[in-house]
Write a structure and sequence with these properties.
By secondary structure, the protein is mainly α. Helix content is 72%, strand content 0%.
């Protein structure tokens, strides 16, 4: 399963990078004479209500989904990783303030908070990435903090303190490398969450601008034609489900590999 997920994600990345080369049509090219055509030779996945090729729009939509998912996960990982290391190592009032901020943010559902911010500020690709990144740092911070709380009593950290190493140097050289594995695992799983969040915002029409092709906007366009032209909504829905499933399977595999307590059945 993990190998299949990895191959699926590699194919998706290649499709996103080579979209202008492999897409059979322009994603926004309209032709009302061919609207709502079922899958066939000219249009392998059919056309939508404006005669646009569904396959081409799926390929171009892969770019937005992967860009938003990976960028939001990296941003959240950087913010949460720094917050978790600082809170766990320094403790005291710094730890209390950072964790209370995390508790306050957890009181608001991430999607609801994203809706409020984007609805107030406005839509845009990079704004969506920033909002999803800043609303997803809490899980990183909590996991990293728990790891640092156990690491700061280890011998190598105590030795670094004894020889006079500064706090920033200890956090950068001794603590950060030891929390990269859980950070990478959470980040992989967060990619799928960010992809779904972006699709939800685009479905509601307040995420990425309407002229940008996204899987969420394709789902919104096709919801009215499920009974007469099912392919308009089904194919982007399948693409979204397969992508998120592949990301989650790969994240589970990465967690199993990096978990020191895992057992592989050997004595």
């Amino acid at each position: 399963m993990s190998r299949a997920a990895l191959v699926t994600l590699i194919l998706l990345v290649l499709a996103a990078l080579c979209a202008p080369l492999i897409a059979p049509h322009e994603p926004n090219l309209q032709n009302l004479l061919t609207r709502l055509q079922p899958p066939g030779a000219g249009h392998p996945l059919g056309t939508d209500q404006l005669g646009r090729d569904v396959l081409s729009r799926l390929i171009y939509g892969t770019r937005i989904s992967l860009l938003v998912g990976v960028s939001a996960a990296v941003l959240a990982g950087v913010i949460g990783g720094i917050a978790g290391i600082v809170a766990g190592f320094l403790g005291g009032w710094v730890d209390r303030i950072l964790m209370r901020l995390a508790d306050i943010q957890l009181a608001f559902p991430a999607l609801l908070l994203s809706l409020a911010v984007i609805g107030f500020v406005g839509s845009g690709l990079w704004l969506v990435i920033l909002v999803l990144g800043f609303t997803g740092w809490v899980s990183y911070a909590r996991v990293v903090r728990s790891e640092v709380l156990s690491l700061r009593t280890r011998g190598f950290v105590l030795a670094a303190i004894a020889i006079g190493a500064s706090g920033p140097a200890i956090m950068r050289r001794h603590l950060l490398p030891n929390v990269m594995a859980p950070l990478a695992t959470i980040g992989t799983l967060h990619v799928g969450t960010a992809i779904v969040a972006e699709a939800s915002l685009s479905y509601l029409g307040i995420g990425v601008p309407k002229q940008t092709v996204t899987w969420g906007s394709m789902l919104a366009d096709g919801q009215l034609y499920l009974g007469t032209a099912w392919w308009v909504a089904v194919f982007p829905g399948l693409a979204l489900a397969i992508t998120v499933l592949a990301v989650n399977v790969l994240g589970d595999a990465l967690r199993d590999v990096t978990d020191p307590r895992r057992t592989d059945g050997r004595s």
